[in-house]
Design a protein that fits this description.
single chain, 217 residues, alpha/beta, Rossmann fold, Arc Repressor Mutant, subunit A, 2 domains, five-stranded parallel β-sheet
Length: 217
């Protein structure tokens, strides 16, 4: 099945580069481009992409608000934020907006392609380095009450949620708890279902927004 991608960036050369790169893969097709946030929202509705590659700084409507509107209209959509090292301050807001991950514009081609496939498969792309930035940000904001659904988690599920919140992958969690990666994946699926979350990025946001775990847990 072909992964349909929408590229949203205000620089035509950047869009052309991504289109050339992604269309070179048999399982990926760039179905639309957008030069600003308003166009991104409109094209996402019209073309039904599996993944939206979203720049943050765009005219008319920035990438953060465009992400919010796209996900409000289609909960199944996946947004992969295009960023640079100079835009780290936007990571927290992008996660709150519902982004499923981040890629740097100067990442190697194979990393970008892998990121698109990862997000299209329903997984999230959140490195430990990004997670640490999120944790630092959340320690400085008021907490909100955890949803009542948290009480329905088993002890094992709470432990796995804690490890997800530190940025560990399923394989790393399995190694930490001495269980198989498949078992971890099953637990993660149950956690997301019980809490009504789309992916593990949302789980990280929930964990620290509600103060479920201290930053040094």
């Amino acid at each position: 099945m072909t992964i349909r991608v929408l590229v949203a960036d205000d620089q035509s050369m950047v869009r052309a580069g991504f289109r050339m790169l992604l269309n070179g893969e048999q399982d990926i097709e760039v179905v639309a481009e957008a030069s600003n946030g308003l166009e991104a929202v409109a094209m996402a509705s019209r073309c039904d992409p599996a993944v939206v590659l979203m720049d943050i700084q765009m005219p008319e409507l920035d990438g953060l608000e465009a992400t919010r509107r796209i996900l409000a209209a289609d909960r199944a959509a996946r947004v992969l934020i295009l960023t640079t090292f100079g835009l780290d301050e936007y990571i927290y807001e992008a996660l709150r907006a519902g982004a499923s991950g981040f890629v740097l514009k100067d990442d190697p081609a194979e990393q970008l392609i892998a990121a698109v496939r990862t997000v299209a498969a329903g997984n999230a792309l959140l490195s430990p380095a990004v997670t640490k930035q999120v944790i630092r940000k959340f320690t400085r904001i008021p907490r909100v009450a955890p949803p009542k659904e948290v009480d329905g988690l088993t002890e094992r599920e709470r432990e796995i949620l804690r490890l997800i919140a530190t940025g560990l992958s399923n394989a790393e969690i399995g190694h930490e708890l001495h269980i198989s990666e498949m078992t971890v994946k099953t637990h993660v699926t149950h956690i997301l279902q019980k809490l009504g979350l789309r992916d593990r990025v949302q789980a990280v946001v929930l964990a620290y927004q509600t103060g479920l775990f201290a930053p040094d847990d």
